[in-house]
């Protein structure tokens, strides 16, 4: 929705997965964004990663600059227990709190799957709850189904709703307090 912004997209995993890395590069071109992939473990077992390793990987991947806005996962994981999303959220909040990431705002995805009872749905009570224009939602859906190749009736496509919701923080101490209350420190 903001093509004039200078977006940078980082993912911590799957750089050595040729299929996923090619698709990621295609999406960067579509979005006119810069980006990078790391290669941290993202296996199906989701063995917990060392939080210091996650933080260091984030710092290594991201350009060292001030960001107007950082958008990342939630320590609640968006859907029941996606450990990598939870770890990334805790690491980003910690880095922002500790002054190792500089940003005016931090937004965390605000979705729930009602403890695996539903497909992830935007949380209406989130600070940012925005219905996407039809053309933007269609492009989002197209990227999920045509570029990444997820089935149109599959989980990923169903989770690509026409609403986006985020927990918005404009101060690092507020994000840290929220993390302590909702996501746990150092888990």
Write the SSE topology.
Layout (H helix, E strand, L loop, with lengths): L7 E6 L4 H14 L2 E7 L10 H11 L4 E7 L10 H15 L4 E8 L1 E2 L8 E2 L5 E4 L2 H14 L7 H5 L3 E7 L2 H11 L5
Parallel strand pairs: 1-2, 3-4
Antiparallel strand pairs: 4-8, 5-6, 7-8
Helix pairs in contact: 2-3, 3-6
Question: What does this molecule look like?
Answer:
37% of the residues lie in helices and 23% in strands. With 187 residues, it is an alpha/beta fold. The protein has one domain (49-182). A four-stranded mixed sheet has the order 3-4-8-7. A two-stranded parallel ribbon has the order 1-2. Strands 5-6 form a two-stranded antiparallel ribbon. Helix 3 (83-97) links the parallel strand 3 and strand 4 (102-109). Helix 2 packs across helix 3 (83-97). The mean pLDDT is 93.
Q: Would you identify the regions where 5 or more consecutive residues have pLDDT less than 50?
A: none
Shape: globular
Helical/strand content category: alpha/beta
How many strand segments?
Answer: 8
Spatial sequence of strands, sheet with the most strands: 3-4-8-7
Q: Taking Cα atoms only, what radius of gyration do you get, to the nearest Å?
A: 16 Å
Question: Could you list some keywords that capture this structure?
Answer:
four-stranded mixed β-sheet, alpha/beta, 6 helices, 187 residues, two-stranded parallel sheet
Structure summary:
By secondary structure, this protein is α/β, with parallel strands linked by helices. Helices cover 37% and strands 23% of the residues. Helix 2 crosses helix 3 and helix 3 runs antiparallel to helix 6.
């Amino acid at each position: 929705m903001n093509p004039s912004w200078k977006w940078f997209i980082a993912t911590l995993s799957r750089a050595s997965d040729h299929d996923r890395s090619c698709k990621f590069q295609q999406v960067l071109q579509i979005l006119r964004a810069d980006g990078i992939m790391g290669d941290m473990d993202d296996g199906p077992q989701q063995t917990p990663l060392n939080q210091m390793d996650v933080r260091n990987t984030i710092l290594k991947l991201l350009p060292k600059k001030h960001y107007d806005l950082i958008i990342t996962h939630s320590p609640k994981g968006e859907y029941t227990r996606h450990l990598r999303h939870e770890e990334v959220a805790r690491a980003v909040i910690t880095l922002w709190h500790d002054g190792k990431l500089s940003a005016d705002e931090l937004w965390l995805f605000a979705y729930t799957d009602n403890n695996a009872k539903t497909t992830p749905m935007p949380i209406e009570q989130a600070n940012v709850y925005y219905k996407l224009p039809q053309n933007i939602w269609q492009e989002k859906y197209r990227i999920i189904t045509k570029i990444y190749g997820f089935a149109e009736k599959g989980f990923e496509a169903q989770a690509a709703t026409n609403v986006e919701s985020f927990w918005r923080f404009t101060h690092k101490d507020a994000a840290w307090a929220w993390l302590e209350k909702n996501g746990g420190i150092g888990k």
